[in-house]
Amino acid sequence: MTSPKASRLLLPAARLKETVSAGIRQQAARTLERRRLTPIVPPDSIAGRAMVLVIAIMTFLSCLTLGAVTLVRDTAAAWQTEIAREATIQIKPAEGLDMEGALGRARAVAASYRGVRGATIVDRAATARLLEPWLGPGLDIDELPVPRLVIVTIDPVERPDFAAMRAELAEAVPSAVLDDHRGWVDRLVAMARTTVTIGMAVLGLMLSATALTVIFATRGAMAGNGHVIEVLHFVGAEARFIAREFRRHFLIAGTRGAAAGGAAAVIVFVVFSWWSSRNVATPEGDQTAALFGNFSIGLSGYLGVALVVLLIAGLTAATSHFTVMAHLKRIET
Amino acid sequence: MIRFENVGLRYGMGPEVLRDVSFVLPERSFQFLSGPSGTGKTTLLRLLFLSLKPTRGLITIFGKDRSRITREELPHIRRRIGVVFQDFRLLDHMTTYENVALPLRVRGREEASYRADVVELLKWVGLGERMHVLPPVLSGGEKQRAAIARALIEQPRILLADEPTGNVDPQLARRLLRLLIELNRMGTAVVVATHDIGLMDQVDARRMVLSGGRLEIYD
């Protein structure tokens, strides 16, 4: 038995409980009312999930190719600039030639030209170090008729008139030979162009393969939705409504796959970039840096990846649009 | 309301499936369309539903010449024609309620504006307790009633039912027929395609019989 005092105490508690449960019931009713309608296009089937996976893989490979081409292009450009930034004056020893005087004259001639940032004589010690791998240490340079060098640093934007410089040098120092590295630069330019052209061709093939794969995967995923298109059509939905629903669904699915693939490719480049920056002073790192630069694809590379992702997502949406339209046309006839 | 004059139809270069078919479907009428399997019942229904164009002859629907109806106009005209398919054609990922509401949803109407109507119609066809169930869980008869409710939600002027009792037991067939008769009494014209003679005998209605691609009418 509950005492009257206890009853008085329990009554407000019971009322509170009732109020709370009524509130919960009302909330549940409101939630039911606000329950979101099921999307018109069915959620991803197995074919739909396979499509997202295929899109992710193909986007990853395309972005890797794009990044690699960007890397090769940037590295080739860097090589060209490095080599084109310097020229060399070589003075061959000759009977009765005052080598130091000739070096000074050659430097003065080179430095007098517009577009020359500086001219440095490679001194005896440095020349000896250059020859050390062939002639061994402790070389007395005066014992051998060794040619001497003047390094001319050039402004890559405003290159000096090498023909005039060559003619003036021939007059001032007859045994001087000016090498503007033109032969090297031309060969490098040709090689870089070939490499970039091959890279672009590979990228073109990769993007074509990606586009075709995305189209086929989307059509495969759409094949299971034929009945949905028919039902929507027969209940009086306009073609553009049906197309919009499918476009939206496949744009989201395509973006999901493409973004995942693009992000994976960016991670690969970031990881390699980090690895190469951590291995700057090691032989492996130096070798890799000599071949690929610093492994950073730069802003243009990242923008390219974003563009590929957008293009692939757009392609998925466009494919679903045209598949819907083709299906509707088939139903109508 | 709908008039066919010497209508003929062939698929591709094949023989004519329908030949010189002429009839009129008046407002508020009730008729059976019957005939052996493969004689063109479904084809005739597809012509009525504007999903096929005749290869010859003239079809007038709601005062419009079929050959002059553009693709853009089709959805608007189709909303005045309710169809119940033999295989129901319900979308399995949507609840019964959502399936029935689909014709209104595709027109861009807000759910709040039609919720009460859909619930009322579902109760009328006896699916009040099953509105939040997915179609794969429904029985054959329940699916059929859901399909009928979906065809009626836009209050069409004519209802076309393709073998509506084909997949149900005789008792349920009678109930579905009563539903269609009640609908007809409320003002909707009804065409029931069936080869169930027992079903036709229960109602004194016009019979359109297809045989060898030709149509004969018994008033």
What does this structure look like?
The complex is a heterodimer of chains A (333) and B (219). Chain A is α+β, with helices and mostly antiparallel strands and 333 residues long. Chain A folds into two domains: 183 residues, no CATH class; 82 residues, no CATH class. Chain A is elongated. Chain A has ten helices and four strands. A four-stranded antiparallel beta sheet of chain A has the order 2-3-1-4. Chain B is an alpha/beta fold and 219 residues long. Chain B folds into two domains: 126 residues, 3-Layer(aba) Sandwich (Rossmann fold), CATH 3.40.50; 68 residues, no CATH class. Chain B has a six-stranded mixed beta sheet with strand order 6-7-8-3-9-10, with helices on both faces. A four-stranded antiparallel beta sheet of chain B has the order 2-1-4-5, covered by helices on one side. Chains A and B meet through helix 7 of A and helix 2 and helix 3 of B. Chain A: Keywords: Cell cycle, Cell division, Membrane, Transmembrane, Transmembrane helix. Chain A: This is Cell division protein FtsX. Chain B: Belongs to the ABC transporter superfamily. Chain B: Keywords: ATP-binding, Cell cycle, Cell division, Cell membrane, Membrane, Nucleotide-binding. Chain B: Its main location: membrane.
Query: What is the name of the CATH architecture of the largest domain in chain B?
Result: 3-Layer(aba) Sandwich
Structural class of chain B: alpha/beta
**What gross morphology of chain B would you assign?**
globular
Q: For the record, what CATH class of the largest domain in chain B applies?
A: Alpha Beta
Q: Can you tell me the number of structural domains of chain A?
A: 2
Determine the number of helices of chain A (DSSP H or I, runs of at least 4 residues).
Answer: 10
Strand content of chain B: 25-35%
Compute the CA-based radius of gyration of chain B.
17 Å
Q: Tally of extended strands of chain B?
A: 10
Order of helices and strands of chain A: HHEHEHEHEHHHHH
Multimeric organization = heterodimer
CATH superfamily (homologous) name of the largest domain in chain B: P-loop containing nucleotide triphosphate hydrolases
How far apart are the first and last residues' alpha carbons of chain A, in Å? 81 Å
Beta-strand proportion of chain A: 5-15%
